[in-house]
Amino acid sequence: MVYNIYKHWQRRLVVLKNILFVASESTPFIKTGGLADVVGSLPKCFDKKKYDVRVMIPKYACIPDEWKNKMVYKTHFYIDLAWRKQYVGIMELQHNGITFYFIDNEFYFAGPKPYGYIHEDIEKFAFFCKAALSSLPSLDFHPDVIHCHDWQTGLIPVYLHDMFQENPFYTNIKTIMTIHNLKFQGVWDLQKVKDITGIKPSFFTSDKLEAYGDANYLKGGIVYADLVTTVSDSYAEEIKMPFYGEKLDGLMRARENSLVGIVNGLDYDEYNPETDPLIYKNYSVKTFRREKIKNKRALQRELGLEENDKKFMIGIVSRLTDQKGLDLVNDVIPGIMDEHTQVVVLGTGDSQYENTFRYYENKYKGNFCAYIAYNENVAHNIYAGCDALLVPSRFEPCGLTQLIAMRYGAVPIVRETGGLKDTVQPYNMFENTGNGFTFDRYESGLLYDAINRAKTLYFENRKCWDDMVIRDMNKDVSWEKSAKQYKDMYVGLTPRY
To answer: For tag attachment on the chain, is the N or C end more exposed, with fewer CB atoms within 10 Å?
Structure first.
């Protein structure tokens, strides 16, 4: 009898935690930035005997057919939103052992790209948040925690405290709000958001959804979520200050006891130079000295650059926006472009930067490439072929490019901000330590100095350079440590039994 009681309580101690990730995008289905990488890779890192982690995203029309054809119809129903009765279809797909749910509605999710027009996105993601919550009773899945990602899911904690609170099904559901980039908040006209969402007027006050006369989705999520996380320790501290806080620094200070910084990791299955099918020549930390150079040659050949092993090749893989420090890059290009240096830029964004880099490509033919597009294949080959990767961001919540660069043995040159500061330790020439080159203040002269320090080491002390490459390639930038922090949060938020 005593034994049976013990076994009964032992079983209760290992009850599965049900976690639902809700986000606007996820690899491999739809991606516009690093958010998709996080949502697509982090759920794989949890022990399936202890955690049932599932993901919910919109079923965009622009998701490739190869994925849409694999989706299985689950159910459908209707919800009221913005004076309309809207169809909600639920599709399901198993990928890498994870259950993905897709919210289907052609009215909201048609079009050639997932989002981009804020006046449309405001209603689109109000629908998505309400539909996501409404779908749960029909999915035979009761989440202990809903993990919300960025402003597009900010209304989920709000809805839970408003129109869903009367339903016992939702009583014990906890929420985590993860801020991937505080700059993007989902801000729109207050009265229009009231009309669209159907949320009670009492929620639209300055201590809740209202901010500077408008409604703010992300603010609502931050206010009502049980915990708030950001994607690096340094960024969690930075956003409490006016310069980085995007007018929400006061709120972040108010919630500092519930604010946690957890640095992003990489999917080692996708980013692995030993097995990566997209790069010209695979290599490892043991073989990079003879094999990585073959990727440089292939990259030079493919991009029309001078084929020269001795060139110091700098890569930039980035959205071309003010955030990314590209005004500093523009300032230093004339100074760093000598007979020993090549620069490759991959990305799209603001026309001023696109045109500036096209100008440099024309001016420095054979040594500067402006690849104004986003191409995953080219990105992987830049990481594999370049000697260094430049990330001089004005601010950077976490950043994945510097992590990928380290994984592929491209030494990062970064500004000391957010996740860049947390993941790149500056090179110390006296002790031969560190894994990259850094600068602190946002000044082009300091960026110029950091690049020149990198070039000097590369050309004058290749052994120390190779030592740094080895440290980078051996550095653990996987999800393992970060996933444990998330596990601790999930367990801490939910009852033991």
So the answer is: N
Residue 79: CA count within 13 A, CB half-sphere: 24
Q: Is the pLDDT of residue 261 over 60?
A: yes
Give the residue among 259, 260, 230 at the shortest CA–CA distance from 396.
230
What is this structure's pTM?
A: 0.93
Same domain, 261 and 295: no
Domain span including residue 430: 288-474
Strand partners, 18: 52
- Do residue 396 and residue 423 come from a single domain? yes
- Name the β-bridge partners of 263: none
Residue 16: pLDDT band (50, 70, 90) is: confident
Provide the edge-to-edge strand list for the sheet that holds 72-81: 72-81, 84-95, 98-104, 51-58, 17-22, 145-149, 174-179, 227-230, 259-261
Residues 158 and 253 in one domain: yes
- Percent of the chain topping pLDDT 70: 96
Query: Do 236 and 102 have their domain in common?
Result: yes
Together in a domain, 237 and 319? no
pLDDT level of residue 497 (50, 70, 90 thresholds): very low
**Do 108 and 128 meet the contact criterion of CB atoms below 8 Å apart?**
yes
Tens-place pLDDT, residues 436-462: 999 999 999 999 999 999 999 999 999
> What is the average pLDDT score of the chain?
94
**Residue 420 is which amino acid?**
L
Query: What angle (nearest 5°) sits at the alpha carbon of residue 32, between those of residues 31 and 33?
Result: 100
In a domain, 135, yes or no: yes
pLDDT of 435 strictly over 50 = yes
Tokens at 14, concatenated:
């290992």
Residue 462 in domain: yes
If asked whether residues 242 and 309 sit together in one domain, one would say no
Beta-strand ranges (E) seen in 141-291 are 145-149, 174-179, 187-189, 210-211, 214-216, 227-230, 259-261
Distances (CA, A) of 289 to 294, 299, 463: 10, 17, 11
Please report whether residue 281 resides in a domain: no
| Structural domain contains residue 283 | no
Instruction: Based on the fold, state whether residues 50 and 156 are members of the same structural domain.
Output: yes
